[in-house]
Structure formats: structure tokens, C-alpha cells
Amino acid sequence: MKFDRDSLINLQPQHEFFVGIDSDGCVFDSMEPKHKECFCPVTIEKWNLAPISKYAREAWEFVNLYSQDRGCNRFFALQKTFDLLRQRKAVARRGVSIPELSALKDWTSRETKLGNPALKAEIEKSNNEELWRILDWSLAINESVARLVKGVKPFPLVEESLQKLQRHADIIVVSGTPAEALLREWDENNIDQYVAIIAGQEMGSKKEHLQFTTKGKYETGKALMIGDAPGDLKAAMANNLVFYPIIPGQEEASWEKFYNEIIDLFFAGKYTTNLASKFIKEFNSNLPDKPKWESR
To answer: Is the pLDDT at 296 greater than 90, yes or no?
Structure first.
């Protein structure tokens, strides 16, 4: 199974409704093992952060799991983590130098397909030493995830929800995860059968995924985005989709409500932005802007 940006652009509605759905932390209970067992340890190793591993771990987990940046692309996550570390006095006292990542910041300001293929293409043009190091880090993360994160199942009622949705909706995966991991995880759990497209980081941003697949194709109120991160909400709002949050820490309850109540409301035209705002308020309250250590 192979997908590209043209797959998104050329998607033709087969149903009256549309549903975009995130994967990590939303469909799969995979955010904690991926970040705590793979992303963070590889970051500490590749960037020589062992002398400040406690603070590096706190910063990485705050950015990627417990803040308004939850679910952001890994290249933004590295920047945000390093920005937090540079601001922390305990890190400065240990004499550890945290890179500015100026080449990465420049590249991510210009590129939307933030994956390893686009990074390799940039390196072929620039041969930038910092970007080479970042590619090595990113590839090592993929290897670690493939080796360690196995057997992770969808949350309860995810498959039942997909079965219920597919009767009246076109469904696509909208994710910032590399396509290789997405295809493997959805296939090994036999839930790829319910979706038309699996879109990962190589196919652009989540905002672009939704823009390409929904613009001018579905009526207002008939396109929905399901996600567990503020970036999912922003992508939905940018494309005038209604949003349903899978609240971190309350995933099973969120899916139970979605399966038992929200799907029927959505198909009946009753899951409006006003109703969604109640769930979004609770969702946002669980994810702060600033880490606790800044107020200590």
C-alpha cells in the first residue's frame, strides 16, 4: 500500500461525511512507550545529554506528552526541548552546551513535508553538518521504535467506531508519524481496511492533509477530525472541520462516549461546534502552556 500527496488531492467522496483521525495517542496507546522508551533515550544519546538526563527527560516529556505542544512533529519537538533546556538554570550550572539548531529552524520554516525524505533532499543540496546529525538522530529513533514498540493495540472501541463510521463516512489517517510506522501498525492490527488513505509526515502537515482531502468536497458540519493533540485541533479549525478530542489520560472514556453518543450525533447533524467546545475546553485544560518547573 503506497500513498502520496496526490492521493490526498485526488480523493473523491464516496460518502456524505468525512472523518480524519490521528494515530499515535489517539487510535493507539503508543505515545508513552514511543517517547519514553525511544525518542527520549535516543535524544539523550545522540546529543550527549547524559550529564543532564533528568532535565532532558523532563523537557522532552513535557513537550511531547503533557503540554500544548503534545503530538508536534519531531523536528519541532527537538527545537522546543532544546529551547526549554537552554532556559533552565540547572542545565547552565552543569556546563552543558545546548545547540541552537539554526539550520533546523531555517529548514522547518520553509518545508511542510517534515520527514526524513525531505530532510535528505535538503542535505543533498546543502551538505549541512547540523542537518546530517539531525538525520542520524531521526533515523535512530525510527530504528528504536521499530525494534521496541511492538504489540501496541488500539484503544477499546476504536475498531467498533471505525466500523460504525465507514457506513456513512470517508475515513483517512491524519498523522505526523512516518508512513512506515503507520502502515505497519494499522496493518498488523487489521484496521487499515476501514480507511481510504494513511497520511504520514512525508505527505505534509496535518493541516495540508485535511485541506487536500476536504476543501470543496464536503458540506459544513459533515467533516470531522478526531485527535489527541492541540495540533489536531488547529488543523481541524484551519479547515472548518468540527473536532472531537481524545483526552490524554481519559482515552478509554473518550472513545466510549464517541462510540455510544458522538457518532450518531455527527451523522444526525447535531455534533456542532457549540457542542464540541465543551469537550475542547476540558481537553485544553489538561495540557498547559508552561512547565511546572518554571513556577518553582
So the answer is: no
